[in-house]
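Hello again, I could really use a second opinion on something today. My current little project is about how a certain protein chain folds up. You're getting the sequence in one-letter code plus the fold written as tokens. Here's the protein in full, and shout if anything looks odd to you:
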Amino acid sequence: MTKPPAEGEEREGPVIRDKRRIDPKTGQVREPAEQPAPGSPGGEAAAAAAGTTTSDESQAPQTQALKTQLDERTADLKRLKAEYDNYRKRVERDRVAVREQALANVLSELLPVLDDIGRARDHDELTGGFKSVGEALEAVTGKLGLERFGEKGEPFDPVVHEALMHAYSADVTETSVADVLQPGYRIGERVLRAARVAVAEPDPGGGDAETGGEGE
């Protein structure tokens, strides 16, 4: 005959636990089992799950703050890049302007020499070594962008022409250049010196005089 286990002695064999909610002997509903103690394995798992939820909720504001800081730094970088691009364009524009101004100053000093070469050519005095030097100088200044302008018969333009003489003529229908006293020079759109010209305007009394002559 098997002896019941003594107090403190472990029971050998399988252990059967009755988990039925209704007691088969009394027919009453049993009280639910107590929650695991905090120190038990089940209590530690429950506490860990609760701690994870609380940790996620506490990290949400930090994540939003980091995202806000990242957006602000990105906006700062974009603004800095735009300022740098504008600065680079302004420096390049200023550099081109300084170069054009320096070139214009140098070429302006050569205009009297070019005038002498032109007058010598008009009087058939551009010969020998002087001719070679003059043509070489004109070629170099042309490569640098210097352009000569001002032709007899072209319409008068006060922007590029300087009228030194004025007269009326029945041979023109608009204010025109009757003669070029000194050619003008420019670089691109920059006028270094306006062409000095004699101007002819249509004769305001030419038509009346012809009509009067026919009446007589």
